Amino acid sequence: MSPRRGPELPYSVVAGVVPTRGRWLVASAKVQGSTFAPEPPRVYESIIEALDERPSFATIVIAAPVGYRDDPEQGPRMCDLEARRLLGARGKVLHNAPLRASVLQGIPAPDDDVDAVTATLLPSFQEVAKEMSSYRQRTVYEGNPELSFYFLNGNVPLGTSKKIEVGRDERRDILEKRIPGIDKILDMPLEEELAGVRIEKLYDAAAMLATARRVFTKAAKRIPSDGEWDSDGLRMEIVY
User: What is the pLDDT of residues 78-119, one digit of tens each?
Assistant: First the structure.
């Protein structure tokens, strides 16, 4: 049986999703023809809340791996390698996906060379892995904010970190040129529901939303160009 999709609407809703301190920041927008209308971002306590949102998101691009290696001898996923190649010097911020064992356990497996950033995200990755299936991949795609900005910046990697003001200004300038109304996301007060969300996460979510729009309109790029699947039958790819 197909999942409920909620009422039929004259528009579709797409979303960019990023993990934030054990929760999920969701930036969404209504799409109707050439109209793209960003909405104020929201925080969900679990990924399943976003996946089960009603009306359903037509496309979700999430900053979390989809598909994993089982054996370290297999090496990194091809999408991770190609993403770093595209990003050049900025590629150092894109980490290899952990092994499946690390994700299932929520802690690094003994034979997995997990970096510190990825280790803190393992519980979030575990949430996504529990909900993913080949059917879900019709709607849910793996993305990466740096790759999204790479595309938005004319296929040129950004030169600064999002953790410093000049880096955020660079990202804001790019987003404002590309997406009218993006200030509804970038200027959302970080209080009440968004308390604890770091400002750079708003920029990441906005970039992922831009990619969700391209996926929805079938304009997104996928890496690798030749399909690669994990042992659960999930495509290991990144869209941007």
Answer: 999 999 999 999 999 999 999 999 999 999 999 999 999 999
Rounded to the nearest 10°, the torsion over CA 108, 194, 59, 106 is 10
Question: What is the spatial distance between Cα 151 and Cα 166, in angstroms, rounded to a whole number?
Answer: 19
Q: Write down the pTM of the prediction.
A: 0.93
Instruction: Classify residue 133 by its DSSP letter.
Output: -
How far is Cα 160 from Cα 90, in angstroms, rounded to an integer?
8
Question: How many angstroms separate the Cα of 97 from the Cα of each of 1, 103, 113, 195?
Answer: 32, 9, 10, 28
Residue type, 11: Y
Identity of the residue numbered 148: S
Sign of CA dihedral 143, 236, 66, 82: negative
Residue 141, phi then psi, degrees to nearest 5: -130, 150
**b/e for 56-75, b at 16 or more Cβ within 10 A?**
bbbbbbbbbbbbbbeeeeee
Domain count for the chain, please give it.
1
Pick from 105, 31, 17, 116: which is nearest to 68 by CA?
105
* CB 235 within 8 Å of CB 137: yes
Range of the domain at 164: 1-240
**Residue 210 amino acid letter:** A
Q: Which residues contact 153 (CB under 8 A, 6 or more apart)?
A: 174
Nearest CA to 174 among 126, 210, 214, 138? 210
